[in-house]
Amino acid sequence: MTSPIPSAVPRVVVLGDTRDLHHHGCEAVLAQLLKGLADIGMPADTVIAGFDWQAQTEECLSAALVVINGEGALHHDRPVVHSVLELAARRRALGRPTALVNSSWFANAPAATRRLADFDLLGLRDPVSREEAAAVGVTSLDAPDLAIREACQRRPTAPPAPGPFMVSDSTRPELTRTLRRLARRRGWTYLPVLYPPTQPRPGAKSRKIWKKTRMARLLGPLAVWLMPPRYHAHLVGAPDLAAYCHALAGTGGVVTGRFHTACLCLGLGVPVLAVQSNTPKIAALLADAGLDPAKRMVEPAALATLTSVPPYTPEELAALDRFRSVSEVRFQQLFSRLRALLPPDA
């Protein structure tokens, strides 16, 4: 039986607001997560930047429901893995539900993976993560990344004539440099998934990005050589999610090392060639979409001779249509399951 909830504490807390990264993919995810919760009558009372729930322990333990947006943070037994598992265990001991959604789960110890059973709802966004959980007897809901839903809703009814190819960035600094060289060498557009902050947002990461980006602006053209690639990427990125999706939709194809850029491309129907990220999440995403990773992924060494992004074949287009349709059903199931975690009068 669920313990009584004091009236002074939040009903719904969202942990894992990654918008402090100033990243279009994170903007898309949070837009859909917060809208989806509001649409089912469970608007978030408190949204916490990052995963430091200990900074707001009372709210996170007392809330009627905590929804954790895991994204790509939970891998290789990082401290954040054990932090969110501790929150789920403590809330379970209090009889209060916790959901982990929109998450990958890679290369964590089996003992940690077994602790996923403490979540009342587990939504893993790719087949590799679901297999890792299933290997220790933990079942999870199949729902892809919420950025795909955002992209599907932004997909133009009449696609524009394909423009030049586009290159995005990577979480890996040296790969970002390689991708920048590819764009410069081919005369393609370089447009990272990161965007320039107009002001700092809650969270230490945002404050650091704000300071570094201001420094990059002062350096001017020298920033590309003197600044780490990620901060230079903030300097030259599209100003907002709408502009980024518009640019993606108007290109003939995209080369990227970013998972969320690949998500947006699939939702928008834009041909994509991907370079592996810091986990297998991009290959897993492509496989989940019915695409062959061997054909839609490229090794970093091959970027030097890359001359085009192949258009989707009729078979790939049909697979993407199925994927988008099935994904929407899965998103609806996800929010329906979230709604069921609380009684109507909670």
Kindly provide the radius of gyration, computed on alpha-carbon positions and rounded to a whole number of angstroms.
Answer: 20 Å
Number of strands: 10
Q: Quote the CATH topology of the largest domain.
A: Rossmann fold
Strand content: 5-15%
Q: Please state the overall shape, judged from the principal axes of the Cα atoms.
A: globular
What is the ordering of alpha helices and beta strands? EHEHEHEHEHEHEHEHHHHEHEHHH
Count of separate structural domains: 2
CATH class of the largest domain: Alpha Beta
User: Which structural class best describes the helix and strand composition?
Assistant: alpha/beta
Topology:
Blueprint: E1 12-17, H1 24-39, E2 46-49, H2 57-62, E3 65-71, H3 79-93, E4 98-103, H4 110-114, E5 121-124, H5 127-134, E6 141-142, H6 146-154, E7 166-170, H7 173-186, E8 189-190, H8 204-219, H9 223-226, H10 229-236, H11 241-249, E9 254-257, H12 259-268, E10 272-274, H13 281-288, H14 293-296, H15 314-340
Parallel strand pairs: 1-2, 1-3, 3-4, 4-5, 5-6, 7-8, 7-9, 9-10
